Structures are given as C-alpha cells and as structure tokens.
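Folded chain entry
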Amino acid sequence: LPNRKRQFEPKCPPLGLESLKVKDDQLRASSFKRRGLGPHRGRLNIQSGTEDGDIYDGAWCAQYRDKKQWLEVDARQPTRFTGVILQGRNSIWSWDVVYSYKVQFSNDTLVWKPCMNGTEEAVFEGNKDAETPVLALFNTSTVARYIRINPQSWYENGTQGSICLRAEVLGCALPEGSKDKLDFRHHNYKEMRKLMKSVNDACPDITRIYSIGKSYTGLKLYVMEISDNPGKHELGEPEFRYVAGMHGNEVLGRELLLNLMQYMCEEYKRGDQRVVRLVKDTRIHLLPSMNPDGYELAFKKGSELSGWALGRYSYEGIDMNSNFADLNSGMWTAIELETDQSKLINHYFPIPEYYTSEEAFVASETRAVISWMQNIPFVLSANLHGGELVVTYPYDMTRDWAPREHTPTADESFFRWLATAYASTNRVMSNPDRRPCHNKDFLRYNNIINGADWHNVPGSMNDFSYLHTNCFEVTVELSCDKFPHASELPIEWENNRESLLIYMEQVHRGIKGVVRDKDTGAGIMDAIIKIEDLDHHIRSASDGDYWRLLNPGEYRVTATAEGYLSSSRTCQVMYDYYPTICDFHLTKMPLQRLKDILAKGGKIPKDLQLRLRQLRMRKLRATTKAINQRRAAASKRARRA
C-alpha cells in the first residue's frame, strides 16, 4: 500500500467536490442505491439529513457490492491528478466505509489507465471509521481529464454493509483569481499577527490593533479597528463589528476579515470614495479569530484533512456558538407569569446569577467577548461561520425547546432586511443555479432564514447581543467547505467583497441622535429610546448618543431617563444612506414632584433593571479576573518545574 501522509498539506489543490466547485453533472457512478445516495452526494464532509432514506443522504452508495463499482469525476480539462481523500458515509443510522480502493484515469471515458505503484496496480488504504478523512498521494502524478475511485474492500456484516464513500480529488488546475492584490493564503496565529501589524504600519492614521482578552492557552484575541479617529468613540458615530472564527475550523471568515482590513487600507489610500466614507462615518472593529486555539489545531491538519469538527470547539471543549447566557428563557417565562405587562422588560436583560460564578462553564473567549460588548456601544454586527450558504437572524432559540420553529424578534422585518442585504449581494448565494451544500435547500428561502427555524441554539451570540445590548447581529454561513484550500481564497474574496461592504453600510439605517439635559446640554447616559408598536427598546451611550436601526417609514419615538420627564416626537426614516437625526432635550423632574413623592412615603423611581445588569457584569468580570490569575499562576509554576 502506498504511504498515507496525514499531516501533509497537498501541493495541488482540491478540485472542489466539497466546495461545490465541481458540479453535480461532473460526477458519475457505476450504480447507486437511490437518488439520495447518488454520485452527487459523494462529496467530502457532506452531511446527511436526519431522516433515513430521504434525498439528502451522506455519501455515494453503490447499488451492488462487487469490485466493479466506481465513482467518476470529470475535471472538464486536462488536470494533473496527485491524490485522493476518502471518508465513509455520514449517517446516524448506517455505518459504511471503504477499506481499500484503486484509481484509474482516462481522457475519453473509453480507455482507462490504472494508477501504478511501480510495476503493480496501486491499492490505496481507505477508512477505518466513517468521519476521519484519509489522504492518499499518488507515487507519480497523472495528467488526464477523468478519474475513477474503484473500491476493492469495504465493511461487510452478512447482508449489512454497502460500498459507500465521500471523496475529494487533488489536482492542479489554473486557479481563478482576484484583481485585488491581497495576501491570499491561510494564516496561523503568528502570521495573522504579522499581517495585522503590516496593515497598521501601512495605514497608521486609520487603524489600531488591540486585544480584548486571551484564549485558554494564552493566545490574544486581536481586533483591528478602522476609523478616521482610532481609539476613540466619536459622538454620533456608530460602532460596527465583524467576528470570525468562533468555530476554529471554519476558517474562511478569518481570511476574509484579514483581506478586508488590507483592502480598506489600500482603497482608503487610493481615495476610493465608498471606503473613505465608511472610514469617516463608522468605527469598524474586526475580530478575525475568536477561537485561535481551535484554529491552530485545524491549521496543523490543513485544508481537506481537518474533517468536519476538528478545531470547532475551544481548548476546553466548549462550543462557543451556544456558550453565551441564555436570556431568552427568562424573558419568555416572565411573559407567561406576569399579569401586568407594563412591568415586563424587553431589552438590556441582566446576565443570570449562575452565569457569573467561577464554576460556570463559560469559555475564556466568551467572557472576553461579553466584556468587549459592554465596553463599546456596538450597533450592528455579523458572526461569520462556514459549512453552509445562508444568512440566519434571531432568534436562534425556539420558545418551547422545539427542534426547530420560526421564532421572530420584535425587529423581524429589519433583521430580514439585514440578512437579505448580505445574501442578495453574495455571488454564490444569489446564483439561482447553485445546488444545496448538504441536506437543506436554502434557495427556497432566498438564502436567509430565522435561526430557530433552522435548528434550536440556546445561548447564541446573536440572541445575547440583541437582548443584553443595543446591537443587532446575524450569522453568515459563508461556504459549503469549512476549510477551503488556499487556491480558492481569491474567488471567495470576490464572492464576498461586496456583501461585506454593503452589510457594514446598513449600520447607517434608521434614526440616530443625542439625548441631552435641557438645562446643561450634557448628554444623558442610559436614556431609554422607545419606538411605538415595536416591543424592543435601546439605550443611549455614555455621551448620550444613540442609534436605532429601522426600516424606512414614519415612527413615534419616545426618550425617557431616570429623574427626567419623558419626551416624544415623530421621526421619518428615508431610503438614504444617512440616518434621520432625532435628538431629544429632556427636562429634569420638578423638585415639587419629588417632594410630593417623598412626603407620601414613596421612593424616587430607580432603574433597578440597569443596576442589576451592571452588578452582574461586575461580578462576571471579577470571576474572570480570578480565573485568569489562577491560570497564570499555574502556568508560571509549570514553567518553573
């Protein structure tokens, strides 16, 4: 058997079975059991549906069990084939793997030439389990148009066991490119830090690098800030963030954000008016790697060999996608129990007490991001993932813990606008001829979906951001392939460049303004902004400025603050790039009114919700500090030892 090189990053890239660069009509087979197990399902890492026997099964499976079965790939041009990656069948009901196989090549599908190992026909080692990708490199590369994978042995248990496989083929073809001269490659932690430093050196007047904390192993969570006044919140200027790499093995978002910071630096220097306007009107924060520990694990295996889950979780084994505080359950319980609807809150929900303890199963990275959310008054965000092609919006959690159920927020219409803004401008998502990635056809939904209507995710960052802060956030699933080969990065940048820019521009939708004290002119912090008939409020930042994302229309807006009389006005939102200015000047509650309240034995109204929220956040930061100190001390002792 030819040697397998599991740690080797193949020099020739994958043809694109996993990424769907290889179309369904380029795949043929000797036979197949049914449509859901056809050759188009024989793609590396493809995931099956939960129903056995549907059209979304997790492999190609031959109808017959003999050595004459094959899966064929048409490269559509002469290609230098260098290797094959094989997996077994993805299924919760069946266990099928190919133990060994042969490979043949052809230029016309009539005459086939076997892959040789010296003077003998090569037999390659396949899989021992259904999920681990196994790489086989050919001793000698072969130039041809067609390649066949021909199983020789497979799991059999009487009548059980079928010839089933998922595959990727490695071959050298001319990669598609991009007109932008960016650093298109995968960057590990040190290389990422070096690239970010080079961007900062090239554009020191509009960029700043800072860290929001550390991963479990001590890698810093670096953020690139892009603004015409970096390091400072400017009155009236909205704060925007992109977060990538929550799952360390979903790497495309990381590279896109590194590309984006390079692109904005170069285009700003070139005088591109669109980029100049974004930089001057918006404070942008880019976190390319929320889970650097997981990424390093996947990076060591490399594209195509890291499988579906290696590097997904934090070093502690935590899935950060569901690691934020579940605020939804408390909200819905209160709605069911409270008879006086006026006592219900609909925003700025405090973190639950249990979540603030040192024993809480909260990742270091999650704690760092929550603290970051508190420090900066973010208005809009997107969380970049991989493995599908769809944009999801809150809520991500179903109300009654159903596996899936449409669960809208009060801002459903605007979230649909946001999701559509990205999906409709993405080259791949907007292609009506594209095929589904795995087992869900999101084209039917115009490539956007309510997160809970896809699957139930308690404790998501999207839901937490909406309920605990002022920030609206969606999740963007960027590609079918979680870890695209470096050769595919230029075209992926082209697919997403316009979407990344246009989504950032949505932070200027709706209304904005400053809530001030009528007598002193000082900004009022934590004033509540209410929109009539919209059951979700937001609050003003430390200088009194606020931003409320809204679709075009006419709105009745009310501002209230502790110790002040409320004020209302009507504001019209247009389709323009810039938001409508809607300022408020609040009058302090009269002294006589305060005296009357006290004389009757009453108490001056306090914003208890805000105080509880601040108290819980202080406790979370204190426990995080204690955990980090213990971890640092243990690391120091280990180094001494």
Q: What stands out?
A: The chain has three domains: 24-173, 189-508, 511-594. Residues 1-9 have pLDDT under 50 and may be disordered.
